[in-house]
Fold:
Amino acid sequence: MMRQALESMANTTAEKASDRRTTARRLIGELRPYRPRIVAALGLIILSALAQAVGPLIIGRAIDRAIGPGDRRALLFYMLALAGVYVIGAVAARGQTRQVGEIGQRVLAGLREGIFDRLQRLPLTYFDRRPVGDLISRVTNDVDTLNQFLSQGLTQLLGQLFSLVGIVVTMTLLDWQLALVSFTIIPVMLLTTNLFASRARIAFRRTRETVGDVTAGLQEEIVGVRQAQAFNRTEFNIARFRQRNEANRSANVQATGITSAFAPAIDVLSTLSTALVIGFGGYLVYRDRMTVGTLAAFLIYVQQFFRPIQLISQVYTQAQSSLAGAERIYTILDEAPETADAPDATVLGQIAGGITFEGVTFGYDAARPVLRDVTFTVEPGQTLALVGRTGAGKTTIASLIPRFYEATGGAVLIDGRDVRGVTRASLRGQIAVVLQEPFLFSGTIAENIGYGKLGASREAVEAAARATDAHDFISALPQGYDTPLGEGGGNISQGQRQLIALARALLADPRILILDEATANIDTRTEATIQRALATVLAGRTSVIIAHRLSTIRGSDLILVIEDGEIVERGNHADLLALDGLYATLYRRQFRDTRAPSAAAD
Structure:
């Protein structure tokens, strides 16, 4: 418990927000829908605090009026009264914990839903500049910090505050002089707590850094275990992990040392306060200015007095840490979602599939454009191929078609209509995208193929699989289309994952199909199978192909060679070879590389 208190203090200082009051007001605002429950919880908290304050008073009266005089009937009365008070307090404490816990869980559930909803609606530029791990940490770790506070800390904070008020008032009413003597130790305790908190801040910050290093290294090495074994790096990686683990162990030992010193220091102060009460209270009893029962009650109050202060200190710092977490959560919720459709945006009806770029300029950073004055036209049903070196801007061009990003200059037109003048849903509903690294979701193969068309029948799913030649390998699996896929489809091959991704895109029946290096990681035999399937499936559809293997785009109607965000060459395969420019150089190089092994074998 003490370790948690110190760690919470360290977190508080390290994670101070710029405006905690605003965050606190927003967090309190989340509680407004539960006002009746909050009022009930406060009533139970007050009742529990009163029970805790009255208990020692009854004990003192029992000593003076029953035990001292030897009145058995009076002693029985006080015993029953004490039992009744503590039973009421226990029932009230249980009720308040349940009420506050339920309120907290409802608030947290609402926050989680709000975060997920906002993440689904944020523009891709938001994810481009933030690591996925950081976002996951906000959704899990920061929400968990709030969970601990709302479910447990808030109950403790309110309960201990009311208990402390009740104890202070009762002690003052019993004997104000002895109460002042008891309170003299408070400044010393606050100074001690502050001293340990400053040391703990440094120690626990170090533990967080080292455990983060361990976690990051562990994740990286597990993901890259194949490469580690392939390059004979296992022993080196084990030694490096051992160093990280040792650094984390040392940091935790240091933090534990501070924790182990803090608890005895508080105990010493509590004992000192008790000694002061016994000394001064004994003097008052000796002078007949206080009864033995009152002194006994005071001793119980002193013991109870320090516990609320310790818990309040712990929960207060936990509250500050929770506010830091809440601020990071609200940072996501305050992010502007994807630009809304224009007020006069219309629904894009059935399209033929014509694509036109008119002087399009775009940059992820406005000061550094990625595309410059890109202009071209693709007629409905034609195939456009984008080629060029890595980073030339090919994927960016393809991403502007479904409005994953907005052009900063010029216009992107579909069938002559500016994509900014139509609703995104109607535009994207007629476009499908297949990436180089297909992402498959947890679920069955049938569910993954039907992902892009909700409610698709099994017959439609199988038809899409047959069209991409995926049906045979799926049928050969033990559970066929009901075979569950592991994370990212790790239990099937890369080529099979790509075939499923193609089937998923084709089932959506798009008018425009974008293939972003879709065959780059597939063996030539599977590639030939896909090419045959696409020749039939893409008939009458417009396709945009980003290709690394130039041999796969020789039949394209239009090939654009992109270099540094500009179109440097355009034409069909024969025209570009005749031009003897960059495309011809790239093609000959690939042709030579693919022919070299055969020539050597000959």
In short: The mean pLDDT is 79. The radius of gyration is 35 Å. The CA atoms of residues 29 and 507 lie 45 Å apart. The longest helix spans residues 234-286.
